[in-house]
Design a protein that fits this description.
mainly alpha; 5 helices; 76% helix; transmembrane helix; transport; cell inner membrane
């Protein structure tokens, strides 16, 4: 299952990055060569950046590519390393669930209830913010999978 999620995320990140790149190229082309700037490219770029950043954070968590400071782990004796890793991954799991999944779902729900839409494309903002609970679920999955795989709980 993990390999399927990793592959899907890799392809989604490439697609989102390509979409963002194409929207920026189109904006430059339409502004300077056609002398008629596009109005939708700003929103596409902004929304792509949000999705790219949050899904990228989940991907980095799963691949353990995120920034880490090893000041504390390097000073922990070997028999305490499991406890430290359990605390770190447990904290990530709790944060991902409480803030990103629950808080993100509440944010999406509120934007749908109040019918908030983007200015130019008039996309319901709930669809844009949906990436927050999705990324939270992915971060929770990766953290839980790491805890269970390494038996660090």
């Amino acid at each position: 299952m993990r390999k399927a999620i990793d592959t899907f995320l890799e392809k989604a990140l490439i697609f989102i990055f390509s979409l963002m790149l194409l929207s920026v190229i189109w904006q430059v082309f339409s502004r300077f060569l056609l002398k008629s700037p596009s109005t939708i490219t700003d929103e596409i770029s902004s929304f792509s950046l949000i999705w790219l950043g949050l899904l990228g954070a989940a991907y980095a968590t799963g691949k353990r590519l995120h920034l880490a400071i090893d000041l504390i782990p390097s000073h922990i004796v070997a028999n305490r390393q499991k406890l430290y890793d359990g605390i770190v991954h447990g904290s990530i799991l709790i944060f991902g669930f409480l803030v990103m999944v629950i808080g993100g779902a509440r944010l999406c729900w509120l934007t749908f209830v109040f019918q908030q839409k983007s200015a130019t494309l008039e996309i319901p903002l709930g669809f844009i913010y949906l990436v927050i609970p999705i990324s939270g679920l992915l971060i929770c999955y990766y953290s839980l999978e790491t805890l269970l795989r390494k038996k660090r709980f």
